[in-house]
Design a protein that fits this description.
heterodimer; A: alpha/beta; Amidase signature (AS) enzymes; eleven-stranded mixed β-sheet; 11 strands; about 40% helix; B: mainly alpha; 3 helices; elongated
Chain lengths: ~475, ~70
Amino acid sequence: MSTATDDPARMTLVEAADAVRARRISSRELTEASLKRIERRQPALNCFIAVDRDEALAAADGADAAVKAGRSLGLLHGVPLAHKDMYYRAGRVSTCGSKIRKDFRPSHTATVLERLDAAGALQVGTLNMSEFAFGPTGHNAHFGPARNPWNPAHITGGSSSGSGSAVGGRLVHGALGSDTGGSIRLPAAACGVVGIKATHGRVSRHGAMGISFSMDCVGPLARTARDCARLLAIIAGHDPKDPTSSRRPVPDYEAATVSPSVKGLKIGVPRNYFYDHATAEVKALLDQSLAVYRGQGAEIVEVTLPDHERLSDLASVLSTSEGATLHAAWLRERPGDYGAQVRARIQVGLAYPAVRYLEAAQVRAELMRRFVETVFGACDLLHAPVFAMPIPTIAETDMQDSQGFQRLIASLTHATRTINYLGLPSISVPAGFTRNGLPTAFQLVGRPFAEVRLFRAAALYEDATRWIDRMPPE
Amino acid sequence: MIDKHFIKTLAATQGVKLDDAAAERLAGALRSASDALAPLSSHSLFDTEPTSFTQALEALGDVDGN
């Protein structure tokens, strides 16, 4: 369903791209509107690390000239985006949200940025993030926390904190995030937008700062499932520069979001693990979302997840061992240049002996196979919380490395991190608001490479509820 | 025994100094991971290559992503 409008801030990414192609709006008008909103909202939201005003306007003028000249236009022609500040662009500073890399200028450009450039997208700046992408809240000791567009006293979720805030605040039409333990889905859920972590290997990671070779995933956040489908279709696919990227062809994700249906679809609700810490309020909202699916012809079935209670620990063994490896030299030589909590989290990887690390990697395939056969033998998609509680405030979660911070992190990533260990695709879908006025969401998890099914079910729910039409207050 | 002294020694072999609180925390993480792995790693891992994970993802994947 389209909600085309002349107000650029209300346009979805697809509506904005279509309006440029149809000459209903120029790229300069879109970009100026984006820059004005950034100027107005950045003091409250702190979602940008850098804004490239002049470069963006020059690129917009180039895009408009191409439209006038009748040149072939890409699917994102002239549309302003911004990305988590960990995607390298040759010669441009990429801080990775850190003090250590505050002046780092990479010599190469990330494949995902090259693909977005080729599709005609503009980049208006770089976005705030948790330091080195460690942290599910959005706190950052060096740049300050990004703030939630629905209430700046509350967290954005992390680590793609600026991506959630900038898209949720309607400052840009879409953004790249990255997800090692929930870092796309958590900010998408907290900021009321859609975010997808695709199957491990679906998107190239060349030129993206790494945390964990085994679990890092690159993906988009945008207002709608259709927006995310378009972005994912552009960035997905094999990349010779990333030997871990899949050679599977990329399906037409966007087509799945047009006139979607869930008739006959079996949606699984987990009997164990995912609702362990869920509040009654969040559970009630998620039950309502299941009722919507049931009303649209889906069958809701209960499923028991095998082995799930162990997966969070195994995910930690992989991600922190690999993270500590990447950071080993700086941990030795510049420990004081990390924020206290980030240093404490990376240090965890120093504790795991190599045999434990390899065991966690060895059992991964078998645990994933067991999960897929058990869960997706009984249903087509798994429906689960993202955050189990209403979105907390920045003050409530500002724990540095004090006692209890590990419990906080484990609690916030309880529903997301295990999916990274399993390598499965998952999309976070806005599902209304809790009493504190902040968004909540559910995630849909599919078998490997089932992104089309995720997009179809997410788009159906959007069309049925239109939560996505709500604008945050200013 | 997995305690702060063990963890401090382990970190020192990697050139990193830890204070007592950090070493206690890391010991807890290692104990928790060991508990999680114990029942899983006691069988059938001998012929398992870690890289089989990506092959398994491909093998179990939807044919058309649908």
